[in-house]
Structures are given as structure tokens and as C-alpha cells.
Amino acid sequence: MNGTGLSCSALFMRTYDRGQLNYDDGEYFKWSNIVTGGRCAGVSEESDISFVEMNFGLSHFSNEAGGDESLGRSSRVFKSHVDLNITQYLGEWRLDYGFFSNFRNTGYDISDRFIGFSERFESFLSTGGHLAVNVPLGDHFSLNPGFSYTSYINRYEGSFEPRLQLSWMPRGRTDEEIHAAIGIYRQPLLGISDFRDAGTAFTAWMPMPEDGRTMEARHAIVGWRQPVGRFLNFSAEGYYKEITNTPVSTWSTIAQFTTDLAFADGTVHGVDVRLDFNHRYIYLSAGYGYSLTEYKTAQDHFGTWFGEPVQRYNPPHDRRHQLNAQAGFESGNFSVGISWMYGSGLPFTRPMGFDSYFSFEERPPDVTGDYGDPRLLLNKPFDGNLPDFHRLDVSVEQAIDLSSVRMKVQGGAMNAYNWENLFYYDVFNQRGINQMPLMPYVSLKLESK
């Protein structure tokens, strides 16, 4: 582009992790992720188009769980995307618009002693565009209407998603604002987790069923950002979400993984509050978040099992309370940082007991000499809570200027008081693994001048 120029960047990243719950039975989990892509962006002062950005990328994610007792489960998602975003000014109005194209391929492969073997591999292509208009209304108000449209090639009907945002700056300052926004969002990709696991380590990825249902969320947000004096900033945001046709696993009182789907409706409401203090050498920050997520679903046999045809529950990602605090001190080339975080326990389904399972598919079992396969019986959906999570991290850094390089030496510790935070709990075997223990570290970084 003519004018101030064009810049491009590229990225490649690969991550891999593997862990075991118990070395005796070989139970393991694996995650793998590969991402590559690029971005080109440029600005121009010679036309009303002031900014152009183009992104492209490829990504592949897979997760796998298995062992002698649970057999094997694997799932993967591949995605490629290209998008173009443009910012253009028409007088005082600003237009942000663009176009995108996505290709996704999903698949899972599951073996389970109760459901047998199940696999599914599918691909779909989507294209679309988005437009948002920033309309100033005097010196204190601005209106941002917009929409996104997605067309799914040979699969779903097109999805039109309108959005609207209103901002009020009482004194015309950008750091002092009251804003509100509403919008509709839809998603074609879903992940099904195993409700046997507390702290799920495996997700089966798949597209939405082609039965006319649409997974949809309607969002409403109100926020306030306000400086208090010269050094303190306050912000608060409240939100409400109404969710329809969220796919969930078909429920069973027996602990078994299934990709058979039912649908739930739900609501999410909450508030986030934050205080930041920044003065010379010292930085202090504290934030609190409250969120309540509730689903309701009607499935076969609910009336027989629980006495009610519709069940309401808090799903496993319902983190009710979150609290975080940071403190920092910086003077010259020396700095100290402290961070503490807390989260209330996530919901999980409590086990009710065990029995023995006999299969009659091949031949009548010997019920007098065979104990059968142990089977876990579950209580109502997500009627228990895991332990709370909290962790303290500390770091100390000293920078040293040498003749041609700048050297940074950092030392610290994660989970400084060695608290046992639960990562995963197998309700069938009554075994769990914790997140990382006390982990001290030292790092050295060299930067050229």
C-alpha cells in the first residue's frame, strides 16, 4: 500500500502434553495442538480506507484418553480460515467490515465396554461477512449497530446475527464511559464431555445435527468505567445471556460415555468488578466475578428416575465466584510481582453406588460363577461441587545492562504455598490427580540493544 506502509508476520506453534492418572492400570490423557498462520496489515493516508488487515491460518487439535479399563477415546478438530478486515471513514462515521471463509473437519473414535464402538467424521465449509458502523451522536454519545452473516455450504441455513452497542461519555473522556450492548450469537461446532469425569479431560468434537435446531445465545451487557482521582480506576460490568438448543449428552443413571444428544435451554447472569491502582513504583489490582449458569432439559426416563420430567442443573463450567489480586513494585531495573487467584468449586455428578453388569448379547451369562463388570450408578446431574481452587505466584526480576545486550534474570515460584488443587477426579475408581505442586523456577533472557 502507498502511505505509511505494510507489515506482515507469521506464526508456528506446536504443543503436546501427556499424563497418567495411575501407573498401575495405564490410564492416560493426551493433548496435541498445531497452529500456523500469518497476518498482513497496512494503513493508508491517501484514501478513505485507513486500515486493511488479512489473516490466514491452519490449526489442528486432538485429545485422547484411554487405558485398560476405559478402552480408548480420541477426538480431533482441523480448521483453516482466511479473513479480510477493513476500516473506512465516511466523514465522522467509521465503518468496520470484512469477509471470512472457514473450513472445519471434525472426528471422534470411541470404544467403551457398555456402548461398544462409535466413530464419526464430518467436514463443512462456511463463508460470510460482517459490518459495524460507529455513529457519533454529539460529543458524549456513540451508536454502534452491526451484524454478522454466515452461510454454511450444503449444510445449514444461513445465520444472521445482529448486534447493537451504545456508549455514553458524560464528560467527553474516553476513560470515563457507560456502555450497553445486545446481540445474537450462533455456533455450529459443539463439544461433548464425559459426565463420568469430574474435571473433564476428554471432549468429543462434532458439528451441530442437521435437524433444524440452532444453538443460539442472546447477550445483554451493561458496563461502567470510571477513574477515581489520578491513580485509581474502577470498572464494573453486568451481563445476562439466554441460551437455547445447547446440545448435551443424553443422561443415564449409569456412568457411560455417549455421543447421543439431547438439548437444553439455559440462562447465565453475573457481574465483574475491578479496581486498579497505579502510582510511580507500585501497581495494585483486585477483581471479583460472580456468575450463575443454569440449564434445564427434558429427557426420557427423567420422570421415572427423579420424579420430575424436567431437570435443572448447573453445568460443569459454572464457576460461581472468582477472585484475583495482583501487586507489583518496579524501581529502575528491579521488579517484584505477586499474584493470587481463587475460584469456587465446579459442579460434578456424585456417584450413588455400584452394581454388577451382565451382557446378554452373545450368550446367557453364568450369574452364579461370574461377578460381571462393575458399573457405577450416578445421582442427579451435577448435584455436587469440587473443592475450591486457589494459588499464589511470586516473581523477582533484575535487569542488567551490558555493552551490547540487556540481560534479565528472573526467579520465582508458582503455587508458592503448595496448595493441592484438584485437576481431575475419576468417580469410577475414586482417584484424582492434582494440578502442579510448588514449582520454583529461574529464567535468563538476553535482548539485543
Could you explain the architecture of this structure?
The chain has 449 residues and is mainly β. The protein is built from one helix and 28 strands. β7 (141-152) and β8 form a beta hairpin. The radius of gyration is 26 Å and the shape is globular. The model has no long low-confidence stretch (mean pLDDT 87).
Brief summary:
By secondary structure, the protein is mainly β. The chain has one helix at residues 302-306, and strands spanning 5-22, 27-43, 49-67, 71-90, 93-112, 116-137, 141-152, 159-168, 177-186, 189-193, 197-198, 203-207, 216-228, 232-249, 261-279, 282-298, 310-313, 321-331, 334-343, 347-348, 351-357, 373-378, 384-385, 389-401, 405-414, 422-426, 431-434, 439-448. Strand 7 and strand 8 form a beta hairpin.
Mean pLDDT across every amino acid position: 87
Strand content: over 45%
**Which regions have little confidence, pLDDT < 50, spanning 5+ residues?**
none
Determine the structural class based on helices, strands and strand pairing. mainly beta
Largest sheet: 19 strands, antiparallel
| Gyration radius over CA | 26 Å
**N→C terminal distance:** 30 Å
- Structure annotation, total helices: 1
Number of distinct beta strands = 28
Helix content: under 10%
**Per the principal axes of the C-alpha atoms, what is the gross shape?**
globular
Could you state the order of secondary-structure elements as H and E?
Answer: EEEEEEEEEEEEEEEEHEEEEEEEEEEEE
